[in-house]
Amino acid sequence: MALWGGRFSGKTQKDVALYSESISFDKRLYACDIAGSKAHVKMLAKQGIIPQSSADAIRAELDVILKRIENGDFEYDIALEDIHMHIESALIGVLGAEGARVHSGRSRNDQVALDIRLYLRGVIDRLIADIRVMQKALVNKAAEEPRTIMPGFTHLQHAQVVLFAHHLLAYTEMFDRDAERLADCRKRINVMPLGSGAIAGSTLPLDREFVCKELEFSRVTRNSMDAVADRDFAIELVSALSIIAMHFSRLSEDMILWCSQEFDFVELSDEFCTGSSLMPQKKNPDVCELTRGKTARVYGALTALLTMCKGLPLTYNRDLQEDKVAIFDAIDTVTMMLSVYPPMIDGMMVKRENMAKAASDPALMATDLAEKLVEMGVPFRDAHHRVGAFVKLCNERKKQLNEVSLAEMKEAIPEATEEFLAMFDPVMSVEKRALVGGTGFAPVAGQIKFWQKQLS
Ligand code: ARG
Q1: Ligand 1 — pocket residues by CB below 6 A?
Q2: Cis bond upstream, residue 315 (ω within 30)
Q3: Residue 220, beta-bridge partner list
């Protein structure tokens, strides 16, 4: 009979067990469930709610169960629904009546809330460490390419020249905010719900603060109804994960473009590409494409959680069991991204000459001409207009911007001097953007140093 079977006479229909089980996915909570139960019984004994001897026996047996699960020596049965009932029933199987004391003053509703919080707290610590590894890979690659110039794009059109390192460091910044978001979300996860019971707390003299300390939470939850119904913290985490996935997807899109024959800026190492079963010449950036696809899956998890919660009357409803499917899938997907990308970035071969060639397009320096005019006292709108007219004139004469004479340039830009003709130099263009946050060699070198120190 199920652990909750007292008031039932009929048996559960056979497909219902299959339909309602969560052990197939919540078994990964085992260590958190056991840690929670150990703290709970320690408190129960301290409060005189159960005998000390029972608490000792339960705690010892929980350690045995932990070992058994870790050694793969534990049997799962969908009739026992979830990880909480598996562990409780294993306890009772060995300890009998003594084991049956473990659930005093506790419901699976506050138990599962505790387990997820414990689990996600650990996940966040690991994810933040993984993000640092990813940032290091980007910074190392930037440090290898301190003077590599490429065209920067807006609207995927040539905009201005930038350093390739600057582009990589842009992603380093994004991943840094991702780590901050996770750390912030952890604060709201790190709150102890046990003692909320099914919905209303308990008539037993539980010491919640004791359990809180024992499990190293920052405080106890203030409202038992909120504590069993709340999944905000999971929604927040999966939304932070969605943003991380989005950053990976964007980086992937850049890399896909860079690998294309049209750009030809980088080559990924063979380990991260696949061939075509038909076209012998192909080397496809599948990993990057999969990241775009998997990002959709992470967004799916976020949408699932938001939708799951939006119509739920307080408090716990069984719908919430499905939260774990979405949460775990999003965590696993982003964890994989974080493990696959650092070595892929390490092994990415940068084709400096191709980037330099693309960056030699003189149109990339048009803004520099306009800013030169501003320095000479021309109001920016007029300067912009004059350089625009100059571009038009070059287009009409089918010439590149650096293929005209000074006399021709003066037709559109009367203030132009010899100095203007020398401005179509990408190195000079980069050099001059020396302000904080700019793509100049000096600020980018400074940023590389900053991140190397930050991440060491
Ligand atoms: N397996 C359940 C879940 O994940 C545990 C809580 C069940 N509570 C209940 N009253 N049926 O949400």
Answers
A1: 22, 26, 82, 108-109, 112, 318, 320-321
A2: yes
A3: 192
Whether 279 shows a pLDDT value over 90: the answer reads: no
Residue nearest to atom 3 of ligand 1 (CA): 321
Whether residues 416 and 344 share a domain: the answer is no
84 in active site: no
- The verdict on whether 24 is a catalytic residue reads no
Q: Is residue 1 part of a domain?
A: no
Please indicate, yes or no, whether residues 83 and 182 belong to a single structural domain of this protein: no
Q: Whose CA is nearest to atom 5 of ligand 1?
A: 108
The tokens for 237 are: 């985490």
Count up the domains in the chain and report the number: 3
Torsion, Cα of 422, 425, 427, 433 (10° steps): 70
Does 429 map to a domain?
Answer: yes
What is this structure's pTM?
0.95
Percent of the chain with pLDDT over 70: 100
Nearest CA to ligand 1 atom 2: 321
Q: How confident is the model at residue 407 (pLDDT cuts 50, 70, 90)?
A: very high
Reading the block at residue 428, the tokens are 């000079």
Among 24, 53, 260, 276, the one annotated catalytic: 276
